[in-house]
Each structure stands twice: as structure tokens, then as C-alpha cells.
Design goal:
mainly alpha, 87 residues, disordered C terminus
């Protein structure tokens, strides 16, 4: 497959997926879930956690499945402590 053919195939796939997702955007449950996930991601980044770290806490079995299915693992970020020692 040439680069042009690959581009056209991907463009068509994106168009089909976009057309499938548009009706879902008006569903209140989808909007609610998207807002929740966005807030969860924001908090995870604030405290230097990954989505997989949170999944491990919430559903360890599912997190293990997700971890095994990843072909390439991103580099772990060094966690920094938010706590300070009061004297």
C-alpha cells in the first residue's frame, strides 16, 4: 500500500468514526462520563499518576490486562512528593 493509499484509507476511517461518535455527544450519560474522565486525568497528572496507576487501584485485574496488551510502555515519570514537613 502506498503512502497515498494509506492516507486515503485512514482518512475514510476517521470520517466513519467521526460520523459514529457525533450522535453520542448529545447523550447526557456520555457527556457526564467524558467530564468525569477529564477531571480524573487532570487529578492524575497533578499528583504524577498515570491512568494505569488509577486503574490498578480501582480494578487490578483489568489494569493487568491493559498493561499486558500494551506493546510499548511509556517511560515512568519520577514521582515527586507534594507533602512538606512541618517544623
Amino acid at each position: 500500500m502506498t503512502s497515498v493509499e494509506e492516507f486515503i484509507a485512514l482518512s475514510n476511517r476517521i470520517t466513519m468514526e467521526y460520523e459514529a461518535i457525533v450522535p453520542l455527544l448529545s447523550d447526557p450519560e456520555v457527556v457526564k462520563a467524558a467530564k468525569f474522565l477529564a477531571e480524573l486525568d487532570k487529578l492524575a497528572r497533578e499528583y504524577d499518576f498515570s491512568s494505569l496507576d488509577i486503574m490498578t487501584l480501582v480494578d487490578p485485574g483489568r489494569a493487568l490486562q491493559l498493561d499486558k496488551s500494551k506493546a510499548v510502555k511509556p517511560a515512568k515519570t519520577q514521582k515527586r512528593s507534594k507533602r512538606t514537613v512541618q517544623q
